[in-house]
């Protein structure tokens, strides 16, 4: 298999590969209380796929923090959130769940020599690594070439970041023609469309298949359980 035939696979994490329930929201609660000094009454919406810095900004504003104070408080919360999630490592293992077919899908992609698997996620990088480690998934993706909210709060920009990192490591120029994002949310679809990747959407999150299709996903799968269906979907976008 030549380098020119390589395909960059960008996995989303939350609700595509795994689900950690209310742990992220509990982390937001704890970080907000520590930084702001009072409890948060309103938490970010679930399953939107937006990057953590943007979710934290909304969290601050929705809970009455003056906009002028956000530039000071937001970086403090961004620094604190990974620390608070690390304190919940046991909870991730105990209460988190793998999405149906995730392990088999990750393994099958990892085993294909023409695929370069990594992640593009709204998580900060430390949070992403903690979640992957909790489910022993880190060995299936090259996290050093991924795109994370730590890199840019504008999620479509993460595609280009991952493409450049993958090119530096593997020597292949990655563009829309040989890059596929696999995710569950409307934000994953937008990330691919605006960032420069084909989109294989999985209706495993809060967004139903018709909505993902209407948003512009190239292929929509109900789950990751049919590995051959997944590989056919990837191949159909990268010929």
Q: What percentage of residues falls in helices of 4 or more residues?
A: 40-55%
Helix-strand makeup class: alpha/beta
Measured by DSSP, the beta-strand proportion falls in: 5-15%
Mean pLDDT: 95
Helix/strand order, N-terminal first? EEHHHHEHEHHEHEHEH
How far do the termini sit from each other? Answer: 14 Å
Provide an overview of this structure.
The chain is of the alpha/beta class and 239 residues long. It has two domains: 3-20 and 96-237, HAD superfamily/HAD-like (Rossmann fold), CATH 3.40.50.1000; 23-94, DNA polymerase, domain 1, CATH 1.10.150. Helix content is 46%, strand content 11%. Strand 6 (198-202), helix 9 and strand 7 form a beta-alpha-beta unit. The model has no long low-confidence stretch (mean pLDDT 95).
């Amino acid at each position: 298999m030549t380098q020119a035939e390589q395909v960059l696979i960008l996995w989303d994490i939350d609700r595509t590969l795994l689900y950690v329930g209310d742990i992220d929201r509990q982390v937001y609660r704890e970080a907000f209380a520590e930084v702001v000094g009072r409890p948060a009454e309103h938490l970010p919406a679930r399953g939107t796929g937006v990057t953590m810095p943007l979710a934290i900004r909304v969290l601050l504003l929705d809970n009455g923090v003056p906009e002028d104070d956000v530039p000071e408080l937001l970086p403090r919360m961004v620094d604190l959130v990974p620390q608070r999630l690390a304190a919940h490592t046991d909870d991730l293992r105990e209460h988190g769940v793998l999405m149906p077919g995730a392990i088999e899908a990750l393994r099958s992609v990892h085993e294909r020599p023409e695929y370069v698997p990594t992640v593009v996620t709204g998580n900060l990088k430390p949070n992403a690594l903690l979640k992957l480690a909790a489910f022993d998934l880190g060995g299936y993706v090259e996290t050093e070439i991924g795109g994370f909210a730590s890199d840019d709060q504008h999620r479509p920009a993460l595609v280009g970041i991952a493409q450049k990192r993958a090119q530096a490591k593997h020597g292949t120029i990655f563009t829309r023609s040989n890059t596929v994002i696999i995710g569950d949310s409307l934000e994953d679809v937008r990330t691919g469309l605006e960032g420069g990747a084909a989109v294989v959407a999985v209706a495993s999150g809060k967004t139903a298949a018709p909505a993902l299709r209407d948003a512009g996903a190239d292929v929509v799968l109900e789950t990751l359980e049919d590995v051959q269906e997944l590989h056919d979907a990837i191949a159909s976008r990268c010929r």
